[in-house]
Amino acid sequence: MSVVDLRAETRAYGRARLREVALDAARDVVLDRGWGAVRMGAIATSIGISRQSLHAEFGTKDDLGNELVMRETAEFFEGMVNRLDNHPGDLAGAVSAAAEYMVSVARDNPLLETILTRTPANGADVSLLSLLTVRGEPLIGTGINALGDWVRGQWPEADPADVSLMVESVVRLCLSHILTPTKTPSEVAADLALVACRCLRLPD
Question: Which of 36, 140, 157, 198 is the most exposed place for a label (fewest CB within 10 A)?
Fold first, then answer.
């Protein structure tokens, strides 16, 4: 690696690290006092850079908010897929693990719960939702696509209509349980695993 390449790599790492630190700082403010309390100048000061530098990196405060939402949801669905991947060939185990993770994490994370359900949770500030480019339907679509891709990869011979019905039912029911918690995460997981297996006529 040349000196020029090394410097470029170092700059790229520094920029990525700066973005993560800034998003962490904004997240802390949102959870503590709400999105309305987020100030670009205060975020910049807290992480040791100028306000101009923060604006240069993210753009507006709204852009920063969208980046925060994208990060939260990306980590959420990545966690879901990881749990599916831990149960190859086991639909009941995979759906159960993924559903329990999704419900548990969302209920413990008021920011994520607000993003997923578009309702304030545990004092979270719903004003953040007024600027989001990520809305409820695309989020549902992300979950449906991720689960559907995994199922079709595991059971390519399954009836496409059955797969579509199962995947959409499981994702929508999971989000419903996040919005209206009437059961424990483990109970939700067991129910959704049963729904998945019955839809695809696999052992439950």
Answer: 157
